[in-house]
Each structure stands twice: as C-alpha cells, then as structure tokens.
Amino acid sequence: MPSPFHQRVLVLLLALVAGLIWSLAAGPLEAVDAAPGISLFSARVGFVGGVAVLLLAGLPALGLAWLAGAMTRSLRSAAFVLGTALAFPAGHGGSMDGWFWRASLPGSYILLMLEIILLFAGIVVATMLIARTASGRDRLSAGRAPAGAQAAGVAICVVVAALLASVLIQSREVSQVLVGLGLAFAVGAGVAQSVVPAARTLPLLLAPLVLGLVAYIYSLVSFPDHDGLLAAVYTSAIWGPALALPIHYASAGLAGCALGLGIARAAQASAITAGHDAADAPAGQAETR
After folding, report:
1. How much is the average pLDDT of 133-143?
2. Rounded distance between C-alpha atoms, residue 54 and residue 60, angstroms
3. pLDDT tens-digit profile of 170-190?
4. φ and ψ at 9, to 5 degrees?
5. In b/e form, how buried is each residue of 193-232, taking b as 16+ CB within 10 angstroms?
6. Terminus-to-terminus CA distance in the chain, angstroms?
7. Which of 267, 128, 253 is CA-nearest to residue 200?
8. Is residue 189 within 8 Å of residue 204, measured between CB atoms?
9. Packing angle between helix 174-195 and helix 254-280, nearest 10 degrees?
10. What's the half-sphere exposure (Cβ side, CA atoms, 13 Å) at 243?
C-alpha cells in the first residue's frame, strides 16, 4: 500500500491523465459559431450528441476516478479526479463570453439551470457507483447522519463559497472563474466539515450545484431584458458566481469541494491521533510536551 504522500501524488497524476483524455471532447462540444464557452445546449453536435460525447470521453476519467477511490479508500479522491479532469475541457472551452453573445437573455438562464442539474445528476450517479463498487468502500459516504447536519453542512459550504467567489471572480476570464470557484469551494467545504463534522461527503459535493442554481436564478430575476443584463456583464455589475457556466461548477467546484474535504478530514484525523497520543502518554511526559 503506497504511503499517504505517494497516494496523493498518484491521485494527482490520475486526474491529469484523465483530464488530457477528457479534453478531446472540447472540440465537438464547442458552439457552432466557435465562440468560447461550452454548453451542451449550444454544442456543434447538438444537445443529445453533446451529452453522448461528454459521457463517452468521460469513461476513462470515470475508470481512473474509480482507481483513485479504490487505492485511497476515499470517495473524495474519486471526486477530485472527476472534477479536475472535467476542468480540462472546461478550460479549453473558454469563458462565458460566447454564451452571452448567442443566448436569448435572460431566459436562457433556464437552460443553464437544466444543464447544471443534468451534470450533477451524472456526478451523483458516478460517485455512488464508485462508492458502492470500489475496493474499501468509502465509509464517509455510507451510513446515515441527521438531516439537519447534512443541510447545515451544505448551507455553510454554499454561503462561504458564495462570499469568496464574489471576491475572487471579478472578470469573465476562464482561468479566474475556474481558480476562483476551486478556491472558494475548497475553503467552503473545509469550513463546513470543521463546523459540522457529521456532514457526509456526497451532499457536500453538491454544494456547487446549489450555488450555481442560486446564481442563475439571481440573474434571471434581476435583469428584465437582454440589453440590461449585457450591460451589467460588461460593466462588471453582475454577481461573480453568475459568470460561471455549468461545466465550470461541475469541474472546478467539485474538485474544490473534494480538496477542502480532504484537508479538513486529514486535520481532524491528526487532531484525534494527537489527542490519543497525549492521553496514552505518562502524566509526566504529557505535562512536558
């Protein structure tokens, strides 16, 4: 069994390999007008074709994510591989600019809501499949926790991530969007796990879905017409999280959540180990430490 450090390195390598393979889907998924921003509803191969391309190109990523989950016995590692890998075609596809140019605003935000739900439905199916079949099933995704703890954990993650993303995402540049979402959800998931230790892995991985829906609903109801919304976009008067496409939330948001959960759980495990060591040590030694 590789050491924890070597496991982390291997998980990162698996994510990079999966991403390079998944990036092959970026071409067919780009819009007919070749403008930036990947959306299944505007893919050059059509919506059904876009879904098929995304799924087929993602099968190697799913296999490598399963391998990461089996190796580390952690659903978080599998989710990190999936999110990081999907960030490759998302980054290649570019910013949301092209979507703003071709969309019928603000009504097209409804399509983004449908798309982000579809993407995260796929993530749920993939993560549940990995959790149930990977060797050493992730205990953190099994069992039950109070519904209140689940809801509180997700709410904390969403609120913290929303506040940070509002600060970190100040432009439509895809690099800023992906990094901003990744950092925001890493901190949000870490804080949520620390405040609500009973929160489970899978619900917290859905926090990007919640924020994405909130951002799209906000844009839909806040700007009554096409010109008003575009003016807000180009004067930076629109909310930062509303500048991210569903694929951005499903990639960087998911990877950030998995990373934040991993760091928080590692810190909790270290604290528990340190507490046990202190309790097991002789009184004299404990006092001098």
Report:
1. 51
2. 11
3. 989 999 999 999 999 999 999
4. -65, -45
5. bbebeebbbbbbbbbbbbbbbebbeebbeebeeeeebbeb
6. 32
7. 128
8. yes
9. 30
10. 30
Per-residue pLDDT tens for 214-270?
A: 999 999 999 888 888 888 888 888 999 999 999 999 999 999 999 999 999 888 777
Contact 223, 249 (CB under 8 A): no
- Give the separation between CA 43 and CA 53, rounded to whole angstroms: 10
Q: How far apart are CA 80 and CA 78, in angstroms?
A: 5
Alpha helices in the chain (DSSP H): 4-22, 26-29, 46-72, 75-93, 97-102, 109-133, 147-168, 174-195, 201-205, 207-222, 226-234, 246-248, 254-280, 283-288
The residues with which 31 forms a beta bridge, in sequence order, are: 43
How many whole angstroms separate alpha carbon 83 and alpha carbon 69?
13
Handedness of CA 130, 11, 160, 168 (dihedral sign): negative
The alpha carbon of residue 128 and the mean position of all alpha carbons in its chain are separated, in whole angstroms, by 16
Q: Residue 53 has what pLDDT?
A: 95
What's the DSSP call for residue 105? T
More confident residue, 2 or 185: 185
Task: Copy the structure tokens of residue 37.
Answer: 């921003």
pTM: 0.90
Contacts of 48 (CB under 8 A, 6+ apart): none
For residue 243, CA distances in Å to 42, 69, 222 come to: 17, 32, 14
Token pair 């500048």: residue: 243
Question: What's the token pair of residue 216?
Answer: 């799209």
List, in sequence order, every residue forming a beta bridge with 272; answer none if it has no partner. Answer: none
As a whole number of angstroms, the distance between CA 180 and CA 268 comes to 25
CA distance 53 to 77: 24
78 vs 124: CA distance, rounded Å: 12
- Distance CA(28)–CA(43), nearest Å, equals 7
